[in-house]
Amino acid sequence: MSRAEIARILRGAGIGVSEKEADFGIVVGGDGLFSYYGRITTALPLLFVAVRSRGTTSTKGYLSQVYFDDLPNALDSIAKKRYSLSEYRRLEVSINGVKKGEVFTDVYLEKGADSNCLRYHLEVRSRDLSFKDSAIANGVIVSTSAGSTGYYSYLDKLRLGDWLEPERYSVIGEDEVGVCHIAPLITTREGGGKSPLRYTVPWGSTFRIRLTRDADARLFGITKSRSGIRIRVGDYVDVGPSGSTTRVIRLSSAPRS
């Protein structure tokens, strides 16, 4: 959707368009675009708007509050103060001790095109727990509550064996962080405890990921590049709580259906 078309809709709803500081931002697209602007935007509240499509491989908008063709009604609701603001915590990601970015939904280490499964350790630490998982898998995801409907929930969609249920997902609490191994061959936990494929830990926990064998491993979710950031043996990826948040506009009666 072009900027001119979006501006036309806004003007049609009686909202001025200018280069001055805005009261809120409108993001039109799918979950990838929502995730990007959610992690780079600071104080400005955001309204996520999906483009209506029934295509299987079309852009998805699970995080959206409204479809684009319903945007005028949504803007009318905002003008009449029929909305609330949800504040989402972010995660901060560093590589070898250097901050690389923040995460609104999720960050994941995944095998690239020239690699078999990744072999890695995942160390988790918080005030009340400490453990290390080891895995051979396609990768691993660390997700905020806003990322519940994304890659983190692939296991829900496969729960009935041969049947795929695209709308199913697991909720991550606002005071939790989710971890999910991607298509693992094996996972173990140091000390012999249970090693679930997916779990949540308290917000404030920190994570360190290290490869145990070199591979074409890529870190996604903190860069615009579709090839991600190359991670090698000897590198360490740290994920932990950020002091920043993302504010999202929630309509009192969302017109999505």
Commentary on this structure:
- It is a single chain.
- Strands 5-4-16-13-7-8-11 form a seven-stranded antiparallel beta sheet. The protein has a six-stranded antiparallel beta sheet with strand order 12-10-9-6-14-15, with no helix packed on it.
- The protein is mainly beta and 257 residues long.
- It contains four helices and 16 strands.
- Strand 7 and strand 8 form a beta hairpin.
- Helix content is 13%, strand content 40%.
- The protein folds into two domains: 91 residues, 3-Layer(aba) Sandwich (Rossmann fold); 155 residues, Sandwich (Tumour Suppressor Smad4), CATH 2.60.200.
Count of the separate structural domains: 2
Any guess at the CATH architecture of the largest domain? Sandwich
Enumerate the strands of the largest sheet in spatial order, edge to edge or round the barrel: 5-4-16-13-7-8-11
Distance between the termini: 21 Å
Tell me the CATH topology of the largest domain. Tumour Suppressor Smad4
Find the structural class using helix and strand composition: mainly beta
Task: Report mean pLDDT, rounded to a whole number.
Answer: 89
Instruction: Report the uncertain regions.
Output: none
Q: How many DSSP H or I helices?
A: 4
Shape: elongated
What's the story with the biggest beta sheet? 7 strands, antiparallel
Radius of gyration: 20 Å
Number of strands: 16
